[in-house]
Amino acid sequence: MIEHMEFELSKEYLEAFTQAVDAKEADFVTSTLNGVNPADISEVIRELDAEQTKFVIDLLDVEVGAEIIVNLEEDRQSLFLENFTADELATFVDQMDSDDGVDVINELPIEKREEVIASVENEEKAGYILDLLRYEEDVAGGLMAKEMIRANLNWTIQQCIEEIRKQAENVEKIYSVYVVDNEGKLLGRVSLKKIILSEPDALVADIYEEDIVSVGTHADEEEVALTMQKYDLEALPVVNVKGKLVGRITIDDAMDVITEQAEEDRQMMTGISGDVEEDDTVWVLSKARLPWLVIGLVGGLLGAKFISLFEKDIALIPAMAFFIPLITATGGNVGIQSSSIVVQGLASYNAFEDTLLKKMLKVFFVAVVNGIILALIVFGIVIFSTSDQAMAGTVAIALFSVVLLASFMGTVTPLALDKIGINPAMASGPFITTANDLLGLTVYFMVAHFLYGF
Amino acid sequence: MIEHMEFELSKEYLEAFTQAVDAKEADFVTSTLNGVNPADISEVIRELDAEQTKFVIDLLDVEVGAEIIVNLEEDRQSLFLENFTADELATFVDQMDSDDGVDVINELPIEKREEVIASVENEEKAGYILDLLRYEEDVAGGLMAKEMIRANLNWTIQQCIEEIRKQAENVEKIYSVYVVDNEGKLLGRVSLKKIILSEPDALVADIYEEDIVSVGTHADEEEVALTMQKYDLEALPVVNVKGKLVGRITIDDAMDVITEQAEEDRQMMTGISGDVEEDDTVWVLSKARLPWLVIGLVGGLLGAKFISLFEKDIALIPAMAFFIPLITATGGNVGIQSSSIVVQGLASYNAFEDTLLKKMLKVFFVAVVNGIILALIVFGIVIFSTSDQAMAGTVAIALFSVVLLASFMGTVTPLALDKIGINPAMASGPFITTANDLLGLTVYFMVAHFLYGF
């Protein structure tokens, strides 16, 4: 139970709120949203369109408005931001941390970006944003904020406290003070707890923690998240190639990386393109799902074409048709299992990874074990129920081959995708299932053709 | 790039290290691990067996050993802990936060649990652990630690600082001081930043932040994670039904919940039972994958049995067999897409959720749109390539029906599973794909039977 705001975030409130917005009743909006956590207001905003959102944000404090704009879903941000002038946007950006500011600016058309940055009053912030624009969004440099507290190695604790006071407004969340040398090179950190417990005249050099984990600006966002998770960090300093402290990533951003990654993987695996949700429109949902269904359809038609080559065989022995779903389904299941284990291995950082050869050998052995067991089960059941040795042999051999092939495909495909920079989770999606279907059918009918001696 | 320790975490080091452990060369172990971050030592430990692990942990500082034990993978913890006596374990638990301590104790056999708790020296910690044992592992009470800083509303900042000093050793990470009244009811918080910037004689009552988000002890772990993510919190206070502050959840635990959930979902979706990884043995991997493959096999055999009912039809018109994979594959794809969107909706907290009826209607319309488009494509292609109207009609109608049915199944199944307390992600797994296969075949052959007028 989230203790506060429970009442206001109700369906009834939303209805009253939307009506008030449409009737431009500013009083209702400001009075009911007064003091409400911006994260909660963002949930209400989610239900509004661009124009309604603009109306509400204009009525709120600029800090609250800034936070709401940051919280807008990425796919709606650029549309919603069109309603604001460059000057208005600059006022909001002024209130954002530089990492959020640059994310918002990245959603704007190029011309407007420069206008907004030029209009940001806080010159330091404008400089920060210009600096951050240089980085890709999915590396440490694109995640970090420039706002943080840094202390020189030669300072006293009192000087650190002065610096915190000076920066208090700029840096919302402070966990540590980062210690740098005269060249700005990151040396370590002093936690706020230690600052509180130390004498004001204590020297940073005497008490700082030297063992500090940092990442380079070009570290991949997943590496950032894994590092923060491994070392249980709430903030991670970012250094450039020379070891100079250039920014700080906070845990909320790492957490977003993890959930977005999981979401993207799921969509890849289920063949849904784009970031759709249950409450999108029928048309958006259809459109997101159709491409992969059509690919599956094309695969199915190719399969049909392929099976038709064996039309005469099927006319003679219709039982051959019976086991088509068994073969394709097993191929699909094995392929997805294999690729899933590989994808998981790729996602988790492991210092002592097996070589590719060792991996492939293990995949091969697992496939052999499972293939033999499944083939034996099927052989037994088919022999028992039909006494057709040729059929039982065909299905068993085909099944065994399919397990082997699908394991191989399921292992190689994500590795290959990863090598060329495509999300390997795609290898667990409909495309590969379809490919495995075709492969399985080929094996099945070839084996049958051979065993029956057509 | 993780800046420090890069060299030691190499394959060569691991080899030398394992040899040293087997040869009981204590010197090599202590000298190379001296000063190394426990999270990194844990990665080395991952590669060792229970006995080797015991040898290494015994050589390390007890705090480091405690952290390594906490970091052990859950499925190996209970096995590894067998090698330690209750007294030894108590020494380690003494060094852990109460939430980690209770997790470790939960892995022990019941008799040993009491022994360990009785041997924990710090009586306050023992009490904490006894208290935490009452909660299920997957609710807020099971995630929280009892260690935190609480301040009475009537205190001064100086008194808060004294309390922090007193608790400094017990509470490793301090983000805020929680403000309570005389009955222990949670009123708000004061951030460490504010404590540093306030005068020592300032009153907590004057400066504390009243707008605080908390959860109840029985809140589900996913709700905890979503709440922390929504409000960007690094720590979340937990209150009992009377509003009394009873514990605190830190962000690292919420992050673990999110990754474990994503992992579990993926395994459900791919039909792998248990928490297996690429580097498990061939046998473990086979065993984790076989159950679902066998279920798929049984489904495939049922499918074979079912198709065999139409043996005569197939002998007359072998072309009926051609489209079996098309029908089953499309059913599978549509089913997985639908369930995936539902599962995603269930996982994300939404205050303004659509009613079930509205959801189902939307699913229905999406299915109709996609079904019609796919059916038209297939009808066109089959007519064009075979001129067989009955066949084109059969495949198109069957495909349309399969899309509708699979959408329905894919939507209802996860909702039903969720209702009865089973992870809804299972609805995207092989079990449902198999059910959809059978359903699709039924529709296909019934339609064919009818249209061809057998």
TrEMBL record, chains A, B:
Keyword Cell wall biogenesis/degradation annotated: no
Span of domain CBS: 144-207, 208-264
GO MF terms, alphabetically ordered: magnesium ion transmembrane transporter activity; metal ion binding
Transmembrane helix among keywords: yes
UniProt keyword list: CBS domain, Cell membrane, Magnesium, Membrane, Metal-binding, Transmembrane, Transmembrane helix, Transport
Top-level taxon in the UniProt lineage: Bacteria
Primary subcellular site in the record, as a coarse category: membrane
Compartments reported by the entry: Cell membrane; Membrane
An annotated GO cellular component: plasma membrane
Pfam family, one: CBS
Transmembrane segments: 290-310, 316-336, 363-384, 390-417, 429-452
Membrane topology: Multi-pass membrane protein
Record family assignment: Belongs to the SLC41A transporter family.
PANTHER family the UniProt entry points to: MAGNESIUM TRANSPORTER MGTE
Function field: Acts as a magnesium transporter.
Subunit structure: Homodimer.
Protein name: Magnesium transporter MgtE
Species this protein is from: Reichenbachiella faecimaris
